[in-house]
Amino acid sequence: MSIPSSWYLILAALLFGIGALGVLIRRNVLIMFMCIELMLNAATLTFVTFSRTLNDIGGQADVFFILVVAAAEVVVGLGIVVAIFRRRSTADADEISSMEG
Amino acid sequence: MSSMMLLATSMTIPDILVFVTGALMILVGAAGVIVAKNPVHSALCLVLTLFGVAVLFIEQQADFLAAVQVIVYAGAVVVMFLFVIMFLGVDRTEDVHDEPLMGQRPLAIGLVLVLVGSIVALGSEAKWSGGSHSVVGINQGPYQNVANLGKAIFTTYLFAFEITSALLVIAVVGAVVLARRSMITNAPRTDSMGNPLGATTDFEGADR
Fold it and tell me: Which residues of chain B have pLDDT under 50?
């Protein structure tokens, strides 16, 4: 509780950076999804840190909604991945290029 | 992280130990997610990261969110990831060494370094303590964390909470429609699940 909030914020920035790096360099759609989850978790960590620093419960309420949205996003996203895989039998983002002009 | 910094603020040794443990779990897990060749290993490293985040939630007295983090993320979301990975059979290793785009990886690393550097620079420039405190409700106080959070969600954020339920229903219906479409593609037989899905079947049939 007495850890300064800047440590948490730097940690969250690092976590967000790792997630962004994963989205940029990996080509497996499922792993790109996991990296999006990493970035969402960096955002939630920031919210909770400011909730503690400013003594405001609103940050934690926002994290609650982020969790719900993340769960819904995973459901729909994995459904789309399954639908794509059924048609093309690949999970590689570079292979899904039929809308390329 | 020097000993002077440790002495300057009133951090206790358990706090530092918990923070360092959580931070190591988060960073090692996150690195494992993007480095692992096998998607199953990536999902397991994701569990490590999510547990680390839950540890840091507890360290910051967000008890309810830590519990929800473990149940929803480490429980439901990662299990769903693992289910899809094994269901699709993409758990073979991906060759992470060939680069289809020349120079994509160094460029991505450079961009991410710029991103993290600018986030940290912005954060160190800003005056975080300038905001107004306790707009929605107090975090610490006479009530416990769960009571405060529940009061905020069911009073201030009531409309957002109701919209959330609509969002979940939409997501579930969307997932069912997506899964059903692929099911029809492989096995075109009608089941006797319910009447409203008949219209969807006709539409999907006409679509193809």
Answer: 1-8, 182, 187-189, 191, 194-208
Residue from A25, A32, A92 whose CB has the most chain B CBs within 10 Å, to mutate: A25
Could you give the number of structural domains in chain A? 1
Burial zone of B192 (CB within 10 Å; 0-12 exposed, 13-18 middle, 19+ buried): exposed
- pLDDT tens digits along B105-151: 888 899 999 999 998 888 777 766 555 666 666 666 555 788 888 88
| Contact at CB, B46 and A19, closer than 8 angstroms | no
Give the tokens for residue B193: 């699940």
Q: How many CA atoms lie within 13 A of B66 on its CB side?
A: 15
Let me know how long chain B is: 208
- The dotted CATH code for B1-95 is 1.20.120.1200
Chain B segment 130-149 residues within 8 A of A by beta carbon are 131, 133-140, 145, 148-149
**What is the token pair recorded at B43?**
């999902």
* Residue A51 maps to a domain: yes
Among B90, B148, B186, pick the best mutation site for testing chain A contact (most A Cβ within 10 A): B90
| ipTM reported for the complex, 2 dp | 0.90
Domain residue spans of chain B: 1-95, 157-208
Per the DSSP assignment, residues forming a β-bridge with A28 are A92
Predicted confidence at residue B139, as pLDDT, reads 66
